[in-house]
Amino acid sequence: MRFKPTGYTPFMLMAQTCALLGFACYAVVLTTLQDEWQLSNLQSGLIASAFFFGYMLMVPLATALTDRLDAKKVYLVGGLSATCGLLGMGLFAYNFWTALIFMALNGAGLAGTYMPGLKILSDRIKTGELTRHIAFYTAFFGIGTGFSYLCSGWILNALGWRYVFGLIALGPFTAFLIVLLFIPALAHEKWHGPIQIRLRDIFPVDKWRLVLQDKTASGFIFGYTAHSIELFASRSWIVAFFGFCALVSGEPFLLTATTLAGVINFFGVPSSILGNEIAIKMGRQRWICFVMLSSAVFGVSLALATGQSWWFIIALAVGHTMFIMADSATLTAGLVVSAQENIKGAAMGLHSLMGFGGGLLGPAIFGFVLDLTGSRASQISWVWAYAAVVIWGVFFVIYERRSGWMSKSPVRNQ
């Protein structure tokens, strides 16, 4: 793979990393707030889901605006929104309901940075390697979330949970400064005159219908939804799971739970990039289906491994993370190159909306199953919770094989 990110890509990769520093703050402090605020597992999961709810509320507007004006402007607003959400959690949150509000604001801020950041690249890069730029950008999601776990864990241990949110707020603000100072405006604005955004612009149902009628594009979108249920549920609960494993085994882990979660997330970065390269060679659909089935196996195996040696649990967690992320860039790049040009912005918006809709469902499903089957102090509850989020990838593979998506010609060499 001979590819070096050049031009605007390094700046967007740095901005992406900074903007995502607030992603895992709540996952790191979940058990702390659960004890301090006397939350159920379902309530804890719903606070994590509120982040994705805010994302879903904002992403249709954010992506609609990128079809009208320079995505840089949308990105700047998103960076400030995420900063305000994190500061609100650190300064003002005191119970379940206030946490829902500020986590939703944080999620809305990410909606203003993640897909608009991708649009910044696609508007400025006109070479044949666009999908590789996209693969790097998507893979750096793992870099940002990995540092989010690490930094949040260090701050929590040193200063307490409120400082986690307060100090991490510097991350999206730094992303705001990077894009403001280092990404030039488009030479020709897309829209001239006053911008009038109507409801059908925010929710372009007619365009979404066209996207969904394209069997290839809709396959990537549905796959991304199933992928996101598993991905975001795992990331929201992984620190609590490691804490449970340490308690059951009675054997101290090599690193703290938050540090482990951060380090393991980094394995997803090369997995996502290399996964896209493999998919180009063997076909995106075939690779996606193989990865989803493998990820499901690793997820359930990880839950069953509680009580085993820490090195075995970590090995399974690394494998699970790598397989979760191995189709991430492939799903997004496949959608971008398969969507028709006149509805590409709407397709990216629907892709992100449904993907983070999976993120909204995943953590809540996980917490609900923990409550339904016992508690987070029971091994069988963790097994059922992991099974409840990995099964969607299996359902997707079964459905898509029957619907003939696998037989479509894969998009290659892009």
Describe the structure.
By secondary structure, the protein is mostly helical. The chain has two domains: 1-182, Growth Hormone, Chain: A; 204-405, Growth Hormone, Chain: A (Up-down Bundle), CATH 1.20.1250. The protein contains 19 helices and no strands. Helix 3 packs parallel to helix 5, helix 12 runs antiparallel to helix 13 and helix 18 runs antiparallel to helix 19 (379-403). The longest helix is centred in the middle third of the chain and has 35 residues, at 215-249. It is globular and about 60 Å long. The two termini are 13 Å apart. The model is unreliable at 409-414 (pLDDT under 50).
The geometry reads as globular
**Alpha-carbon distance between the two ends:** 13 Å
- The CATH homologous superfamily name of the largest domain equals MFS general substrate transporter like domains
| Number of E-type strands | 0
CATH architecture of the largest domain: Up-down Bundle
Number of helices: 19
- What is the total domain count? 2
User: From the alpha-carbon coordinates, what is the Rg to the nearest angstrom?
Assistant: 20 Å
Order of helices and strands: HHHHHHHHHHHHHHHHHHH
Helix content: over 70%
